[in-house]
Specification:
Layout lengths: L4 E8 L1 H26 L3 H16 L1 H7 L1 E8 L3 E7 L6 E8 L3 E8 L6 E7 L6 E6 L7 H15 L7 E2 L7 H24 L4 H30 L1
Parallel strand pairs: 5-8
Antiparallel strand pairs: 1-2, 1-7, 2-3, 3-4, 5-6, 6-7
Helix pairs in contact: 1-2, 5-6
């Protein structure tokens, strides 16, 4: 993997980080809620929410370091390759090579909250989709822009049936709209239930709900704008 464009970057194992975050947050919140109920001290619920949900978000940069690896991306003439190195070392941990001729379509996305980006590859032979999250993107070496530029060049010389198409991310699709509608109904349902059972717990639902909504709608606008721009 030495020909073509080479980009030094950092890769983030987002799925592992998300699962770890859920286990940590839900376990901690569940424990503090049980204590709050047992001792009739509702402030413990707020302490649990702050420590186990807000805390990891505030210290997200430290959290990401656990799941971050140094990586080198290769945009070769014939394939897209990635070398991933072990944490804080130059020892090669994994190496991936994906030939453009095997790629059917792809999805790209840039976070509305930080400088990370996501690239997903969908293959022709039914092979499982692969997704990579890259951190600290620089304008001169932006992986998304470089990859899309490479694909566009290939598509300009390929036949219509061999062109690699770009696909929208979830929030830029109808499914994403339905997801937001269902989420809205569920949130309203939980709040109504709390009004009749325990009104004091409404802020515990409303605050994270608002935070989630702002994040989702911000990302939805980013996904739609980016897909429209790259498709054209």
């Amino acid at each position: 993997m030495k020909s073509g464009k080479i980009i030094n970057t950092n890769i983030f194992f987002s799925l592992s980080a998300f699962i770890s975050f859920l286990i940590f947050s839900l376990t901690g919140l569940y424990a503090t809620v049980l204590l709050a109920i047992n001792y009739h001290y509702s402030i413990l619920g707020w302490i649990g929410f702050t420590c186990f949900f807000v805390g990891p978000l505030i210290f997200s940069s430290q959290w990401k370091k656990i799941f971050k690896r140094k990586a080198i991306v290769f945009l070769d003439e014939d394939f897209f390759g990635i070398q991933i190195f072990k944490n804080k070392s130059e020892v090669l941990e994994k190496e991936h090579k994906y030939y453009y001729s095997q790629i059917k379509s792809y999805k790209v996305g840039e976070s509305s909250n930080d400088d990370s980006c996501v690239l997903s590859l969908i293959f022709k032979n039914g092979r499982k989709k692969v997704t990579f999250t890259f951190l600290k993107q620089k304008p001169e070496n932006n992986i998304i822009n470089s990859f899309v530029s490479k694909i566009n060049k290939l598509n300009s010389i390929n036949s219509e049936e061999n062109k690699i198409t770009i696909m929208p991310n979830l929030f830029a699709t109808k499914k994403g709209t339905y997801f937001i509608i269902v989420l809205t109904i569920m949130l309203i349902g939980v709040i109504v239930l709390q009004i009749y059972t325990n009104p004091k717990t409404i802020p515990l639902t409303l605050l994270p709900g608002i935070i989630l909504y702002v994040s989702i709608f911000s990302q939805r606008k980013k996904d739609i704008d980016q897909f429209t721009q790259m498709k054209n």
